[in-house]
Amino acid sequence: MYEVFADLHVHIGRSEKGKPIKITAARSLNFANIAKECADRKGINIVGVIDCGSPYVIEDIENFLKTGDAYELEDGGIIYKEKVCILLGSEVETSEKGRNGKSGSAHNVCFFPHLSDIKGFSQEMSTHIKNITLSTQRSNISGYELIDIVKKYNGILIPAHIFTPFKSYYGNCSDRIENIFKEKYNEIFAVELGLSSDTFLADMISELEGKTFVTNSDAHSLPKIAREYNKLLVEDISFKEVVKALKNEDGRRVVANYGLDPKLGKYHRTHCDNCECTIETKEPVQKCPKCGSEKVTFGVFDRIELIKDKETTQSPKERPPYIYQIPLTFIPGVGSKTIEKMLNSFETEMNILHKLSKDDIEGAVGEKIANNIVKAREGDMKVEAGGGGIYGKITQT
Description:
By secondary structure, the protein is α/β, with parallel strands linked by helices. It has 13 helices and 16 strands. The chain is 28% helix and 20% strand.
């Protein structure tokens, strides 16, 4: 058994032939480039690519397997250059009955062991989605119905970024995920926290006590891969081993969640859409205290304050630590040229963030930047909260 790093939520911007997949994602974000980025720069051992249900991406995967650099595993997943296991995933938007009789919608990330499985899933979902070639198109089914289709093709379903104000179960559908999945709720064994929340906030809701938490990047560009990730204890890198880790079976488990301070997330606090201010009051508000507008984007922190059923955080014994980690791109003074210089010296971001001493970093990029990286690693930085689609920022070093 050994420890590996896993980011289970990475988008594809365009196919190899330039066909749009995720409109808001970078053009350079294709299947082959994701594999190379994880292997050569990030140091990520397992990556979940969640737009593999698109027929354009399926074609790219078939061509990728013909290169000789990658092959499918019997236990599920595609191995690239013996360094990275790629999980074939699909993000699906479901249609739910939301709060107060309003319609709601939620994102789900679904993973499948083999290319044949996701091909079958894609074909069936094309009857529920208007444009199967594009990423995360809204389906005409609920999560309750989706989980049965996912299981039919040997897959697993993980509710995505569960607290965000748009496209999530707690954000705009329900106060309890169990109300969505009903008797199938026990078949949900992991949930994704999202950039604007963390373990300490999520464990204020008792129905999540038995669920494994995962922290993923939701990357829309290559540099954003591994801004959040997980450390897993597994026997090898494969779909089967990841499922065991998420289920906490046979000694496999999630060892740690690495994520942003939730204040850095772009939906952490409620944001006034009228006067463009982020509202950091002690109590959640549904009206802007500055201008009186009710046009606000409700924050993750504020949503949890409203729906929590525990007064203090009480995590289950098996809950792994949540380790705040500021990505290199957030750290003052660390631009693309500096990152490139460090990667040339130290190979991967995981090495820089986890293994190197301050002296090592200082020798490559100087004392000031080395100090900032170490302070970020140790959580010794002041953070200004984000909201309304605007990321938080580091205001002081």
